[in-house]
Specification:
Oligomer: single chain
CATH topology of the largest domain: Jelly Rolls
Structural class: alpha+beta
Helix content: 10-25%
Order of helices and strands: EEHEEEEEEEEEEHEEEEEEEHEH
Strand order of the largest sheet: 12-19-16-17-14-13-20
CATH architecture of the largest domain: Sandwich
Number of domains: 2
Number of helices: 4
Radius of gyration: 20 Å
Distance between the termini: 32 Å
Strand content: 25-35%
CATH class of the largest domain: Mainly Beta
């Protein structure tokens, strides 16, 4: 008998498979990738009793319309998402994020849109049937690596599900609170002193807005130009998620999950680990402000972030 599977009736804008990422491949130009919001990724898996690193569906802005065939499943959606469950009798039930549901054969999940965020996650109890690439199921569309030939999903394609386990599928719910501010805490970058005193004052005291030039690779910002007093290009150096590069036009770029592994733009700062999930969820037009912290503060903030994440995970256990 064929395993349960989703038939894609509408693919959405950027529907891919993601997990915790692909490590130890920078030396051949392959970045980590993985879920762009790691906390929401883990919470989705927790709500359906999966291992926290199980592969799930990530979508952006408008999500997919999926019809379930050949079985029943236990699923959950995390993020700030507007979605419906379409029953076999055509009844439409408005779904709520951060709780699990049973979906029956023939029923549909219509992930209509995100609300005040960019990304959301759909987890299925037991996970999906996928082919692993370099010990990860993450799709990197820039490099065309991962399931579905490294491409985002299209209409009429199928996503097969492992034998979904419905035994002991109790109701779960998390009272999740989205971050309340748009202040992004950063450490000084390796090329911080390439920039004039005025540029540094602008960076930390003026606001920037997220442009429409944003994807899983990076986020371009609009605001006052940052003057480089040394050189607008450097020898290419290694990059990490959260680095803020400044090209010759003086407009900052925040690198995200599918960033290149090396680059030649000077780096004014790097977003601390505790704020990476929040940054990734910003939508075009969002106004943000940068705040400098030192390494000790960044480590404490990451510890706080980890404790908060663990508290949410314990809530759904």
């Amino acid at each position: 008998m064929t395993n349960p599977y989703f038939e894609i009736l509408r693919p959405g804008i950027n529907t891919t498979i993601q997990d915790s990422g692909r490590n130890y491949l920078y030396h051949i130009g392959i970045t980590v990738s993985g879920a762009i919001d790691q906390r929401n990724y883990k919470l989705a898996n927790c709500l359906v009793n999966n291992k926290l690193n199980e592969a799930i569906i990530e979508f952006a802005y408008q999500g997919p319309l999926l019809r379930l065939n050949n079985g029943n499943i236990n699923f959950a959606i995390t993020g700030d998402i507007f979605f419906n469950i379409i029953k076999n009798n055509s009844e439409v039930v408005e779904g709520k994020c951060y709780q699990n549901y049973i979906l029956k054969e023939g029923e549909q999940i219509d992930i209509i849109s995100t609300k005040k965020s960019a990304y959301g996650y759909l987890a299925i109890s037991g996970g999906f049937q996928l082919k692993e690439t370099w010990k990860s199921y993450s799709i990197n569309t820039k490099a065309q690596i991962g399931p579905n030939n490294g491409k985002k999903y299209s209409v009429n394609e199928k996503i097969f599900i492992k034998n979904s386990i419905l035994k002991n599928s109790k109701n779960k719910k998390i009272n999740y609170k989205n971050p309340l501010n748009n202040i992004i805490r950063v450490l000084k970058g390796t090329n911080f002193d390439y920039f004039s005193k005025e540029a540094k004052d602008i960076f930390f005291n003026q606001s920037y807005s997220v442009t429409r030039m944003v994807d899983r690779m990076g986020m371009r910002l609009e605001g006052s130009n940052l003057e480089n007093i040394v050189n607008t290009n450097i020898k290419s150096e290694g990059l990490i998620r959260g680095v803020i590069q400044v090209p010759a036009d003086g407009k900052p770029i925040i690198l995200l999950s599918d960033h290149g592994t090396i680059g030649g733009y000077p780096k004014i700062a790097v977003v601390i680990s505790a704020d990476l999930d929040k940054v990734a969820q910003f939508t075009p037009g969002t106004t943000i402000q940068f705040k400098e912290v030192n390494l000790d503060e960044a480590e404490k903030l990451f510890k706080d972030y980890t404790i908060e994440t663990d508290n949410y995970l314990n809530e759904c256990s």
